[in-house]
Amino acid sequence: MEESASKKKSIDLKLILSVIGILTPIIGFILLTKDFKEKIIEQPKKLSGIWTIKFTVKTAKYRPYIGETYEYEVYVTQDEFNIKGNGEQTLYNGEAATSHFQFEIPDVSTRKELKIPYVLKAHRTTQGIMTLQIDKKNSTHLTGQFNSAIADMSGDVEIQIK
């Protein structure tokens, strides 16, 4: 009797060890896959809202532009990784803008990087691009560089999202 009980315990132990042996890699794979997805598959950045965009000109072919600042208020909407927006110039060199030039962000993907094209409808329509980074401590604050077709201007850009 004791021998058959001992054999039964041995079989039960082998069965339990077999089940554990099968389940361990499956559970490990599930946990690794979940961790992999969270780290590798990026979630959309929250970028919708009212953007206050400030350009500070650092270089330009037309020297009087150097040092000037331009501010725009742009209403940005977001669908997953894509953003687009429309707005207008609000300030010029820190004072109320007399011309409210139209500022447009065409539908653009932000999945890989924050390289945002824009169209400025001033005396003539021109294009530019903003290359941005999100502040690690404040996700509603973006900084970077801009390039514009107007007199080959470039400089710093700062964005506050409300």
Written description of the protein model:
The protein has 162 residues and is of the alpha+beta class. 24% of the residues lie in helices and 47% in strands. It contains 1 helix and 9 strands, in the order H-E-E-E-E-E-E-E-E-E. The protein has one helix spanning 2-40, and strands at residues 49-59, 69-79, 82-92, 95-96, 102-109, 115-121, 125-134, 141-148, 154-161. An 8-stranded antiparallel beta barrel has the order 1-2-3-5-6-7-8-9. Strand 3 (82-92) and strand 4 form a beta hairpin. The longest helix has 39 residues, at 2-40. It is rod-shaped and about 100 Å long. The mean pLDDT is 86.
How would you sum up the major sheet?
Answer: 8 strands, antiparallel, barrel
Largest beta sheet: strand ordering: 1-2-3-5-6-7-8-9
Class computed from helices, strands and strand pairing: alpha+beta
Which consecutive residue ranges, at least 5 long each, have pLDDT under 50?
none
Keywords:
162 residues; alpha+beta; 8-stranded antiparallel beta barrel; 1 helix; 9 strands; 24% helix; rod-shaped
Structure summary:
The chain is of the alpha+beta class and 162 residues long. It contains one helix and nine strands, in the order H-E-E-E-E-E-E-E-E-E.
What's the layout of helices and strands?
Blueprint: H1 2-40, E1 49-59, E2 69-79, E3 82-92, E4 95-96, E5 102-109, E6 115-121, E7 125-134, E8 141-148, E9 154-161
Antiparallel strand pairs: 1-2, 1-9, 2-3, 3-4, 3-5, 5-6, 6-7, 7-8, 8-9
